[in-house]
User: Fold Aldehyde dehydrogenase from Marinobacter nauticus.
Amino acid sequence: MQIASLAEVGLPNVSTSDTIDSTFAALKRAQLARRGSFTLEARIAQLDQLRDSIKRYESNIIAACAADFRKPAPEVKLTELLPVLQEIRHTKKHLRKWMRPKRVAASIGVWGTRSYVRPEPKGVCLIIAPWNYPLNLALGPLVSALAAGNGAIIKPSEMTPHTSKVIANIVAETFPPDLVSVIEGDAAVAQKLLALPFDHIFFTGSPAVGKLVMEAAARNLSSVTLELGGKSPTIVGPDANIKKAARYIVWGKFANNGQTCIAPDHVFVHRSIAAPFNEALKQQIGRIYGKTPEARQSTPDYCRIVNARHFQRVSSLIEDAKSKGANVFEGGITDAEENFIAPTLIANMSSDMDISREELFGPILPVIEFDDIDSVINKINDNPKPLALYVFDQNKSFARNIIERTSSGAAGINLTVVHFLHPDLPFGGVNNSGIGASHGEYGFRAFSHEKALMEDKHSLIHLLFPPYTRWVRRLIDAAVRILG
Ligand SMILES: NC(=O)c1ccc[n+]([C@@H]2O[C@H](COP(=O)([O-])OP(=O)(O)OC[C@H]3O[C@@H](n4cnc5c(N)ncnc54)[C@H](O)[C@@H]3O)[C@@H](O)[C@H]2O)c1
Assistant:
């Protein structure tokens, strides 16, 4: 389905930047009012409503993603709809257990008390989303925020305006504005929002903007979850199943046109298998996207770069690499009219090239040959900790060695990207690639405050209260001796 203009997506019923303060105040008031009555049933009803609306809007979502960056419909279903719908299903199934206060056994020191860890809603949360999975990364966190009993403001990305409008319409149709509101806009709008004392900020985007978000959050001591990016390395060992490695790497890299936070950024391949591996990569690209440049440009299965600015950025990366001696051995063809960049494979990368430093976030894959795995591990450890790291090898100890000696948000063995789909795995980065985690119970906990609750039953702790008579002092000394 083609969308010619934003108006066709539907009339937005959405807060604008002028109404930021009043929207926030309304959410705050409503959140306090409903605090005691936000039951399991109420939360599940909201999740059901969200699921129904998403399903009702399915064709609009597909059309909007096509209008924004020619994202293929099957990719929209697999990477935008499925993760959010699965998150709803999984959350509904487990929410009762997650919400239940967890009994904690009394320790000797507080014998005679009863204790619980009681998750409570953080309050009013801000969700700032990126453009690359515009629906998934706006509504996925919303599922966790609602499950945990919060109100939320969503600020979708201005770079995918059609999808942003659809999100606004879904939310306006599904929730009262004092429970969930969408505020559309750019960085300036995000900055206005960030000045407000949100109870939690869930940000997905680049590490550079993540730092600004954390700085702004610090002013109000708002807690943060930062889902960031970086250069996720992939290592193909000497005993890799070459065909399988190429299949997963080509899919993980070129789906969404390389604009995936957990896409393999670059590949280290053992020199002994480099030639057949490079050939296998080329074969996979041909098999999926077509044998000729024309076929690759016309296939409906290949997404586009999101806008002219990013097209320019990614094209310049290729030009910079070429001018410094890189060998573009597949692709490299670009068409500015369509923000099209062919699936591109690059050899002979060197440290003076921009592709060796920047997160590529586009359809270019540098392939680097190695002899000694220690040098690869050292290189990874010399750089900021990545969001994901992938290893392909049949030999389990090869992967184990790398995973033990490096730090990354997630690690995958003989696959790429798929870990995103497991609702029981924490999804998140580490330091430069992120702080905190999302998905399933991890998402619920990100949006919850774990309140410590203790009740006195028949404890003897009052025997240690002042005045500090000789008897009390003796008791305290004994307590320190026994418990310390
Ligand atoms: N870890 C993850 O789950 C994940 C998922 C997708 C994308 N990413 C990362 O996101 C990046 C690409 O997305 P992007 O280009 O939309 O990121 P971005 O950081 O430029 O923008 C993300 C959001 O922040 C807002 N923003 C931009 N500048 C801002 C500023 N100065 N102050 C406040 N808000 C501002 C944008 O309007 C947008 O809504 C990549 O680095 C990618 O790896 C991470």
Notes: Residues 1-13 have pLDDT under 50 and may be disordered.
